[in-house]
Design brief:
Helix content is 8%, strand content 34%. It has 279 residues and is mainly β. The protein folds into two domains: 34 residues; 230 residues, Clam (outer membrane lipoprotein receptor (LolB), chain A). Strands 1, 2, 3, 4, 5, 6, 7, 8, 9, 10, 11, 12, 13 and 14 form a 14-stranded mixed β-sheet that branches. Strand 5 and strand 6 form a beta hairpin. The longest helix has 12 residues. It is globular. It starts with a strand and ends in a 12-residue tail after the last strand. It binds 2-acetamido-2-deoxy-beta-D-glucopyranose (NAG) (4 copies). The site of one 2-acetamido-2-deoxy-beta-D-glucopyranose has 5 residues, from strand 3.
């Protein structure tokens, strides 16, 4: 459970005591400057395009057989809770295809549980598999609040984005890399990825720098996404409907369900190299 709060909290008693115009101005600037960093704890929702999960057994993308985001062009609603304080994230998907992993169906709701130790589980009705963080499979950590400014490059020119929830100018953060485990990863290395370069992008609204959309694939622009077939990185993206700062009371929403216990979980490891060290 979560309750909304402003991105930067100002104690009302404290603000009442501030008499200096200069101080008030400084505080206002601090609040305005919080974005594009994400809040320490947040609840967000949006619509995601592309296959979920975006990899399959035993390696990489073979089972997707040239699927691109257009395969799921209606998109699917997602909601998510993220705490960088506890390093946990939960993403609820409306529409997952788990048949390749022995799961309950090809169009079923599923929940991703990201744990502080870098393990990630995918759970559905009476089913759970582990996708990251087993011995020999590198861990996947939750995104840090400043991942877009620390790990991506801000393009010098504003972009223009026309999506379901936002139309207008955007700050354009980009990054491209070859997938693989983090350099410091000490486990057995997965076989070299066939995926090639993955391009990442993150758009923040202009001028207030709030989350608009985020995506990745073998190209940046959705208009070229039909190139992302077979061994090339699948084109995936999420448009944010809302994104707000919250405080979690007891973190019960992040607890793994019983089907994810060590005895019951199965394996859906992303052995294809998977996402990069950034997350
Ligand atoms: C956790 O907090 C939520 C919201 O305040 C509450 O409804 C729920 O009962 C709490 N759960 C536990 C186990 O304390
Ligand atoms: C689900 O995945 C399986 C195995 O990869 C594939 O054969 C099937 O076409 C997919 N179904 C849908 C609805 O995407
Ligand atoms: C997502 O949820 C909204 C609001 O509940 C609904 O109107 C819309 O049809 C849903 N979209 C999809 C793709 O399921
Ligand atoms: C963001 O920058 C990349 C790289 O220059 C470009 O391909 C992409 O079209 C830009 N996005 C927008 C929305 O302008």
């Amino acid at each position: 459970m979560w309750r909304e709060r402003s991105h930067v909290q100002v104690d009302p008693d404290t603000s009442a005591m501030i008499h200096s115009v200069g101080l008030v101005l400084a505080l206002t600037l601090t609040i305005a400057g919080a974005w594009p960093d994400w809040p320490e704890e947040s609840h967000y929702s949006g619509v995601s395009y592309g296959p979920t999960p975006f990899w399959c057994k035993p390696y990489g993308l073979d089972c997707l057989k040239g699927r691109s985001y257009a395969d799921n062009s209606r998109g699917q609603n997602i909601t998510a809770d993220l705490s960088t304080v506890k390093s946990v994230q939960r993403i609820n998907h409306d529409y997952c295809n788990l048949t390749n992993f022995g799961g309950p169906g090809s169009q079923v709701p599923c929940v991703e549980y990201w744990q502080a130790d870098g393990k990630v589980f995918i759970a559905a009705d009476n089913f759970c598999c582990q996708s990251y963080g087993s011995p020999g499979i590198f861990p996947l950590k939750v995104p840090q609040t400043n991942w877009m400014t620390q790990q991506m490059k801000l393009e010098p020119q504003l972009g223009y984005y026309k999506g379901e929830f936002y139309v207008g100018k955007v700050y354009n953060y980009t990054m491209s890399l070859t997938p693989g485990p983090p350099p410091e990863f000490k486990g057995k290395q997965p076989p070299p990825s066939k995926v090639g370069k993955i391009h990442f992008w993150y758009y923040a609204s202009y001028p207030d720098k709030k989350p608009v959309a985020q995506g990745e694939g073998c190209v940046i622009d959705v208009s070229q996404s039909s190139q992302c077939t077979y061994d090339a990185a699948v084109y995936l993206f999420t448009e944010y409907r809302m994104f707000s700062a919250v405080s979690f009371n007891n973190y019960t929403e992040f607890e793994l369900p019983p089907q994810c216990s060590r005895e019951r979980k199965t394996d859906c490891y992303n052995r294809g190299g998977g996402p990069p060290p950034m997350f």
